[in-house]
């Protein structure tokens, strides 16, 4: 298969084999000294090896840094870089906590002026954001400033599995291509840097400067508390506030993921914070002193598990303001594992009052859209409410079959409130910027499906990034649908059941599934019976995002085919249906 050509190649150039002057052992720890000559120390990782805490301390300063690494024991899966430029010419001591004798990983640490790896591994998405290397989960601090969309994200710079939570950072001018920037926030004495948000302080309420970008995040140490950091150079560098935390822990274990925005009604900053299985709202005039406003959630929505990553924002529906509250929860999603529920209602500046709707309502019925929130500070002239989620699921996120990086985000989506004929819902649809990625658009004549119809070649050159748009008219078909297929008999199936009212996706035979026994599980979404279903499907290497009827139903699904799927098969178990307005194009 073509993709096997993309075998991971780790090229380590200009390696000065390790300059270990000495190995020492004291109590439960061993340590090694390195005379730093190069820019990086490259550390060998083996994902199944236990985590070892490595403390790096330079000879002539008291400054030290610590991080956890799955330090290789039996084999080296890949390497991670530790930037040691600031210690050049110094003696750096690495202490390996808990190691009583050297292991493969501690012995093989190397110095190098370059860290090179195969960026374009097989499942690297092309038009979705993924970290350059290392692990990513929740999008954090999404904020627009002066033409740039800032995306921060839960990031592990020392491996492709969860750990060392920091805020990675990237910027984009079009929400589809991103520029990586240095890590914005790293763990400190208060703990790791968990999820949170960022605001632009237009009126200098916090005193860090007019238009300062202020990040509000959870310090996750012995307890979870909220802290702030500010940037006066458009997010390029951050300083942590000296009196952190600004919102100490009141004795609640799960007390995290602050989403802050300016509230006009009450003339203050409002924070939505996940507090165990509720959202607590806090108010502040300076982002430093916070008072509790109200608490929402008891007895409403899904309480299958802990609530995380809330987001509260206003939207306009039929000329009136409605407020939406997003709440992620894990596990307990409609199809298992992680998922995001939402509430629609009113917010008076202090209290959220939900409309009477059939909760729980789910933002996305797929298994792979979690912890998503919306951008702050989108200009009024744009007016969109733009959302991005983490395209994975805690059920299996750490085992996804990629190597140097793990996880991507969903496409940026515009959220709107619509009525689905029964009640209000929050619909999501890819932002219009995605349209500029379309290449070689081919329109096909409409077709009629009686049992089966196969389009044997979707695209002349299929590199796994494409879009299909079409309108399906069920006519008298009841159980019908379509699938993507490849010559390896792998298939990703999209089923409509107009009898019981379900839309489902089946990825059991979609390629690699056995990396986790919960990955192949199916997913269902309620389907309101209609005369036609407008379908838009975006595929990017290992993900499929389907939007039915302009986002009335959205389902995000990862899949890992061993060959790109270039066949489209329509099927009907009963009756016939037609497909119209078929457009297929490469994306990118
Ligand atoms: C959600 C979450 C957040 C937390 C972060 C830690 O996926 O559990 O609640 O802040 O991940 O990485």
Overview of this protein structure:
- This protein is mainly β.
- Helices cover 1% and strands 51% of the residues.
- It is built from one helix and 42 strands.
- The longest helix has 4 residues, at 104-107.
- Mean pLDDT is 94; it is low at 1-21.
- Bound molecules: beta-D-fructofuranose (FRU).
- Beta-D-fructofuranose (FRU) binds at residues 137-138, 154, 165, 194-195, 218, 256-257, 308-309, 371.
Q: How many alpha or pi helices?
A: 1
| Largest sheet report | 11 strands, antiparallel
Number of strands: 42
CATH architecture assignment of the largest domain: 5 Propeller
* Structure ligands: beta-D-fructofuranose
Q: Tell me the strand percentage band.
A: over 45%
User: Considering DSSP H and I runs of 4 or more, what fraction of the residues is helical?
Assistant: under 10%
How many structural domains are formed by the residues?
Answer: 3
What is the averaged pLDDT score? 94
Report the structural category.
mainly beta
Low-confidence stretches: 1-21
Could you give the distance between the termini?
A: 22 Å
Q: What is the gyration radius calculated from CA atoms?
A: 25 Å
CATH topology of the largest domain: Tachylectin-2, Chain A
